[in-house]
Amino acid sequence: MIDQSELIINGELVAARSGRTFDNANPATEELLGVAADAGPVDLDAAVAAARHRFDEGAWSADPAFRAHCLRQLQTALQARIEQVREVLIAETGCTLSLSRLMQVEPVIADIAYVADLAESYEYEQALPDTTTLMGPASRIVRREPVGVVGAITPWNFPLMLNLVKVTGALAAGNTVVLKPAPDTPWTAALLGRIALEDTDLPPGVFNVVTSADHGIGAQLTAHRDVDLITFTGSTSTGRAVMASAAGTVKRTFLELGGKSASIVLDDADLGAVVGLAASHICFHAGQGCALATRILVPRSRYTEAVDAAEAAVRAFPYGDPMDPANMMGPLISDRQRARVLDYINVGRSEAKLVCGGDRSPRHDRGFYVEPTLFVDVDPDARIAQEEIFGPVVTVLPFDDDDDAVAIANNSIYGLSGVVSSGSVERAMAVARRLRTGTVAINNAHWLAPDSPFGGYKQSGLGRENGIPGFESFLEIKTIGYPPA
Ligand code: NAD
């Protein structure tokens, strides 16, 4: 049982004012995992008030060296308690031990160093050349200043990574934060808040964590008049609601939303190896990744070979108990999510050819498992090629030539990511340049790094996380004119 049932408000661990809690099941066993504090509107108001007070008081936003110090303390503390963090994260997400090491835990803690350094090294003030304005000669500086109170709203699939990227970026830039994690994964966030409270010098109110079973608490944050910026990761449909709600106070709004990315395998690629790997990637974390390339586009001239390679990979993909290091895929997050994925698989049966999988796991009586599933002969306009499924469902689509591949890849409301594989990096680069997406990997040279901007074109989002653009999204711009010396 996880024992993390408090909110973190104004530097204190507190119960929800109503005394209410909510529980979640372990997705791998369906057993009760613990209880979390179920914040209501008064708790959210208290968290925002604490963040507002601490920001307006001014000392935090004026001291980049102290902010870097606190973030480095946080990194050290997370490293010291890494096994506790991993245990909570695996228990609440169903993520496998292997994926926790590869993506969910170690690298994201290491990445804190980048923003901590940036807090200190970033040039917050820059001079423009002297000029003559309508009022005469002027010198000018352009200052970047923290925006104020940041509301961070996160989904359940990568809780530590997404909570940390938002919280550490916002804090490094001098803001104060209220974090509202997904109801399915309250404990990674609550533990992060507790570690920040117990093991760092972060002043009270700088970082608050509000867990709740009620999505309305997220909505309240987006409409709150004392919140200056919303950084949101989640589905595109919720992103639209966030944007509409934030409009009432003209809040700065950054959205990291859904995707339906394409993996384009050109006809000169090592097709067997590349298609197998592309199919396996979709099944990592049971397909619950926004940037996964869930449509594999293969040359019609080598279609049968490609389908055989995809089938071999999907049939062999190791899944089951997240704690078994051999497994690369665990359960889906919840019964609701499994039902949604199975509904999509049923849609797919009428749209395309099901090659393997397509049901609950026959090997598991408990846990929200779905078999790795492969559809081929998928039409680019089919629902399973257009809508985000968020499950271990691989789709294979044939294309005629490079132009056709680009057209199919770009035939989407989304534009988050993509992969291009070819025997010629130059040819792959030409295709990558034409993709309407925020990131592209060529021949599996991945882009994910703390200094790589990440985000979406089209309905995959607004703005960027990570890198200098991500850091600057937490800063306002002020231009000051003054008389030349
Ligand atoms: P979701 O949109 O259902 O929920 C995300 C968060 O928003 C949760 O904390 C939820 O409580 C909150 N929320 C719900 N309604 C709200 C409202 N009206 N106003 C404010 N907040 C509200 O998403 P999910 O199901 O938790 O996560 C899966 C989705 O997240 C997928 O679509 C996936 O693609 C997306 N995602 C995107 C990225 C990215 O960086 N682009 C990363 C991970 C996940």
From TrEMBL:
Residues 16-480 form the Aldehyde dehydrogenase domain. The active site is at 256. InterPro entries: Ald_DH/histidinol_DH, Ald_DH_C, Ald_DH_CS_GLU, Ald_DH_N, Aldehyde_DH_dom. GO terms for molecular function: oxidoreductase activity, acting on the aldehyde or oxo group of donors, NAD or NADP as acceptor. Keywords: Oxidoreductase. Its EC number is 1.2.1.-. Signal peptide: none annotated. CDD domains: ALDH_CddD-AldA-like (cd07089). Belongs to the aldehyde dehydrogenase family. This is Aldehyde dehydrogenase. It comes from Frankia alni (strain DSM 45986 / CECT 9034 / ACN14a). The lineage of its organism: Bacteria, Bacillati, Actinomycetota, Actinomycetes, Frankiales.
